[in-house]
Amino acid sequence: MALSQDEFGVLGPLVVRREGRMVPITAAKHRIVLATLLLGANRSVPAGDLIRRVWGEVPPDRAAQTLPVYVMRLRRALGDPQLIHTTPTGYRIDLPHDALDLHRFGDLAERGAELAAEEDFAAACAVYEEALGHWRGTALADVPSESLHETEASNLAEQRLRVISELIDVKLRLGRCDEVIADLRRLTAQHPLREQFWSQLMVALYRADRQADALDAYRQASTALARELGVDPSDGLRSVHYAILTGDPALHQPAANTWAPVSQLPAPVGNFVGRGAELTRVTGLLTRAGATVVVCGPPGVGKTAFATSVGHAVRDRYPDGQLYVNLRGHSTSPPLPTAAVLARFLRAMGVRADHIPVDEEQLVRGYRARLRGRRVLITLDNAASVEQVLPLLPGEPGCSVVITSRNELRKPLRATLVRLDVLRGDEAWKLLARSLGPEAAMAQFDAIAELARLCGYLPLALRIALGNLVGLPHTDITSYVDELRGGDRLAALAVDNDDTAAVRRAFDLSYAALDADAARLFRLAGLVPGPDFDESGAAALLGASEGEARGLLEELASAHLLQRVGADRFAMHDLLNDYAVDRATDAGEDVEAARQRLFDWYLRTAVEVGDVLYPELRPPAAPPTMSADAARAWLTAERPSVLAATEHCASYGPLPMAWQLIDAVSGYFGSHGHHVEFVRAIGAALGAARTVGDPDAETAMLVWLAAEHRNLGNLRTAQEYLGAANPSGRTLWLHAGLDGVVNLELGEFPAASSAFDRMMELSAESPTNAYIRIAGLAGWGALHLMRGEFERARERLAEGLELARAADGVNLEAACASLLGRYHTALGEYPQAVTLLRHALAGWYRTGARHARAEGMAFLATALCLGGEHAEALRTAQRSLALVQELGGSPRIECEVHNALGVVLRHLGKPGRAVAAHLRALELATACDYRYGVARSHLHLVRAMVDDGRPGDALRHARTGRDLADRGGFRAFVGIAAELLAEFGP
């Protein structure tokens, strides 16, 4: 694009045009100085930066004296001595915003993104193309500065590629697939490690009816990544590949973007006043992506409200989403662990639970990779230190970060610092007056001003004061202020140089207005380890009834000393939390007794929940009174608090409660995808058990760690944890049961049969615990099925089902029913299979066993399909796939789901899509060493490939399946393979 009057260009060779004529800058070092100034146009560029750009890291002795000479010659060449200014620290070039091609490029790129977000794709395409038209080649092409090219030029090149990718997305949305294929061929050749270009090329080829070429592009991408980086394609690229294999209809939609924008920002704070200058400054900084802003200030000054307001103001600038987390950096509870925050963010961004690693370094890499090429605003609220936030910073220039903290968090963050102070007097008056109403505001103007002064003009203090005033009839603010101002108590709290003194004065005013019971609950609420609590938790703290606690919670919420975070849950600001703990100490409160009551309630309720949902793990001492729905709801609500209590007990005692809490809830937590947090809590409980020297507790924690790794598909790791255990007592049968299941899934039948034999022996030694025998029978039934010993499987499973019904062992009853359903499916008795599988699903729905439900639905889909109910089978298979992808978990289960989907698709006359489903199942089974699934997938592929017109490939899979079945001892599969070879072989 041609440059016009008085314009400068860095997006290519350096160009200067003054008053319509070209101005040559012939000296190389002069070009370096000018380019550096242009890249920092309208900002002061330190002399040290200019010296480093011109001479490198080891400049000559006279560099500082030479630099002004270069600047003087540049001024002469540019013909305007006022164009480049000397500043206290360096130099600044002042230009109109649109005089530099870099600025015009950035503005147009942002406008293109806005138009694309508004779905005006034609206009977005034109604007993006205009933006890219400002590029005339490699940025700074004739500027011989190594450091400029390593940093600035490479960053500019990255911005250009991002805009190119966005332009291609828009063209794909417009259906211009043929047009972009040639460009994408060139881009993938030039940038073979950029998966976004490969993904776009695959989509474009597929939409152009070139499926084979699209799959070949995936193979090229895989080869390049393996050769250059030694890694596999990312989840995003693999999902596009799988969608092409299965003919996913979503690929025919205008876009093929797997990203789902997320918005986690809290709702804007009502009655937000003031901060106009700060809001303008920060929203201006965030107008351009890639900013990092630290908002600091004293406690209670409104940092969270400010950051939330900023986030909502710039949402349109970050169309890919807004992430938010309260890091609890200054809470009495431990700060949120980095791994937990990263796992939470990854889940919010659509990453499946089984694809979220446990290792923190891998979490950081996965988080930054997920943000690559995106525009996301990340708000890190209530940070304690730089170390806490560094792993949470994105690696992408398109994302921005807002951090709030009491501290300035300077080095090594490269952030803009914005400090919030208390409100001005008029702003504080306005905040109070808006809530009290115009009549009270005008009639008691001076009293409101005095109340604002008494609260130190601190927003949190002002809102707490309002809690005692709003809604009172005939509010007499003057009397209220006079009453609370009396005595020396307030002056005693006004500590010099304490920036929390004002807010603590306000706290004391509101605290003094509470009745004795509400004040006691307020003091004790500071002991809650998790983020929130309900009336039952409050009652436990007090040692009172829930009815009493409910009324006191309402009183505290009305006084703004607690925040409502749901219909029946309450939270406390971290500063109020500190204050509550201080008041508890001053009042001589027995905090340990209160904490013990709370933790006893957690444990007591968790045990009852376990009795309802997983009675097999610990036979109930008495019939539970809680319903299954209530049990699941309690665990969902109290999960963070129970895990926090576990870690507290593991650190401070009582140590046994740490593993007791884990033992009570492990069956549920292990099936709901919160693997990172749960593994951390189990690890803490394991440490407590080892400290005490309790071998049974240590074995139980090792078993739960093994169970978690089995859920994640890490069967060998699960085996290692089981091997490290030394079971005794109750843990003997828990250990034997999981040991048998893990070995069964690995196809190691001798070890599995030995484990199930141990269970049968243990059941004979403990005849009162029927669950041990039922679990052993279920294990043996599964082993017989995999071996093809169908009649022996039926005998064991029928006995197990009868015993489970009599013992009310809902999960074991469901397991036996599901396995019997598979038995009837294998024998072609589909109606019986469907009835049993539906019964199993009902049981697992009651207990919340989501992994088992996903697998059960897969087997139900197969039985329905083979019984002729194809439409219902497809719906069931799709629900199963949706659940397993939402939940994550075992690749073994996902393998079964894809095999079931393949069976259904083949019967619906879609053999190509069936082949793709079975290939995905084969890939999953191979990755987790699920040998039974590998053999099954090979054999399923035979009929699908024959129907798809690929008899040669079908024959190879039949032979491979036969060999694997023979080596693995899968006798039924050996017979199926022989039939297939006889039918389709030469």
From TrEMBL:
The keyword Transcription applies. InterPro entries: AAA+_ATPase, AfsR-DnrI-RedD_regulator, BTAD, NB-ARC, OmpR/PhoB-type_DNA-bd, P-loop_NTPase, Sig_transdc_resp-reg_C-effctor, TPR-like_helical_dom_sf. SMART domains: AAA, BTAD, TPR, Trans_reg_C. Keywords: DNA-binding, Transcription, Transcription regulation. CDD domains: BTAD. GO terms for biological process: phosphorelay signal transduction system; regulation of DNA-templated transcription. Residues 1-95 bind DNA. GO terms for molecular function: ADP binding; DNA binding. It holds the Pfam family TPR_12. Gene3D superfamilies: P-loop containing nucleotide triphosphate hydrolases (3.40.50.300), Tetratricopeptide repeat domain (1.25.40.10), Winged helix-like DNA-binding domain superfamily/Winged helix DNA-binding domain (1.10.10.10). The keyword Transcription applies. Residues 1-95 form the OmpR/PhoB-type domain. Belongs to the AfsR/DnrI/RedD regulatory family. This is DNA-binding SARP family transcriptional activator.
